[in-house]
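New to this. Look over this protein:
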Amino acid sequence: MHEQSFDLLRFLKGAAGLEKLSHALASGKRCVAVGSVGSSTALSAGLIARRTQRPLLLVVAHLDDADEAQEELSCCGVACVKIPALEASAAEGGGADLIAARVRLAHELPTLQGSERGSVVVASIQALMQGVQPPGSSQRLIRRVRTGERLVPQQLVAWLSEAGYRRVDAIEEPGEFSVRGGIVDIFPISPASLEERDGAQWRAR
């Protein structure tokens, strides 16, 4: 399977239409191409990315199409990343991992620029419709808490609210926190708990 896909990509290199399209895109022109069907769409995208030596965004209709395109491009040796879509809530499982993957990918995308072999970013329409925090804003959304560290309760609650966390009675999904007496429960990527010590300050446990 790997050998067949690689031969097909080499065959496409000789297609005059793809050569013209690659040159036009590299020069910054707006292009419209029609007639691509099946696997040829993903393989054409991989070839154009290599020719232009730029990241190329391949938008597909469905989640399964994104998985297939990523597999086909990887089999051809084309550098490829997929933007995951949030399919289910964290309460149903898997949601937190997908959120983390999307944030991590947002940081990695700028590194794809300038690759000599080109790269393809595959995304379903659903994945593109779901927002993610800009990479530049991540630092203010990160707070490191170490075991034994003392925290001022009001400051922690204020930071959680400013960072977009929702205060609820009981945490169930990522991005929620609750305060129950001297305990604050936080649901970031994995559940965490802080318990009050020494009156006015809290320590992580």
User: Anything to note?
Assistant: Helices lie at 2-12, 16-26, 39-52, 63-75, 95-108, 125-129, 153-162. Residues 1-6, 90-94 have pLDDT under 50 and may be disordered.
